[in-house]
């Protein structure tokens, strides 16, 4: 079987996907058209921006502001969540941690809580696949749904996917707003929310602003992942590593002493190859720091970041790694399987994921 096809068949775990960055272009254009007709936005301008290939870091954040105008009402949030989960499941993602920034919008009578509820409604609305998003302690039935003989990549059976939510703090937010998001995550722990992410334009905001909320999250048992080193920022990167989050994303601009600290810490790194290339964090896949971390056996997971914004898929990210670094199918399988260890869900879920990989093993290991 060709590597590209294998990467699609491979059971995969996605740990770093932003909801609004993962919306289908077709959905964005459809929604934008309606808003254009209502005179709320200039459709042709938005269409041009969505279709343009340019995705520098600055352009990404300009686009996100536009995306948010298009997607932020309850029904749309529910719709995009449903579609995003269906798209990941369709390419054999068996476990998805989906992150999103709870947003308040008075004009839409939206609170951070009602925003997250709309996301959860989207998980419930999925019908092309079975979705398990509640913790094992809340819904033991989840587990019987995932018997290994019913593995997801078998095309003849209904696909299944575990989903967990991370609530993102945007770097534009205040300490109080960040705290509100953490409190919301705590209140919604039984509904599939499992942790906190710090993201947003890395040129904006100060690490110290978010630290109290992140420390509180950690104390209260939420899992924390940070966008770390997406731009050069020596002090912030040191402080983030000292905070000792459960995972970090990107790690593009680490310097020698950061790498040493990271490798000793064994903090897993969410690697976003296409995102880093398109936002001009790297100039080629070959020179990506993934290569060094992989060689050092540091825990890494391939992720998409924003499948919509960057026109990629998780299967494509595995294929890119395999073709750039000349992995054989066993190495690709192991790369994907190793991610089980650092998913944020409980051990029951990890055990089930291991069974799913066991059942797929013979297709990848001779
Ligand atoms: C490209 N690299 C990136 N770096 C930092 N933050 C990013 C990002 N890509 C996405 N986001 C964060 O995710 C939000 C969109 O999804 P949600 O509205 O939360 O669902 C963006 O506004 C930004 O805060
Ligand atoms: Zn990200």
From TrEMBL:
Task: Provide the gene name from the record.
Answer: LOC120276892
Organism per entry: Dioscorea cayennensis subsp. rotundata
Q: Which residues form the signal peptide?
A: none
Record protein name field: N6-mAMP deaminase
Catalytic activity, per the record? N(6)-methyl-AMP + H2O + H(+) = IMP + methylamine
Q: Does the keyword Membrane apply?
A: no
Which terms are listed as keywords in the entry?
Hydrolase, Metal-binding, Nucleotide metabolism, Zinc
According to its UniProt record, which cofactors does this protein need? Zn(2+)
What's one Pfam family here? A_deaminase
* One Gene Ontology MF term: metal ion binding
Which family does the similarity line name? Belongs to the metallo-dependent hydrolases superfamily. Adenosine and AMP deaminases family.
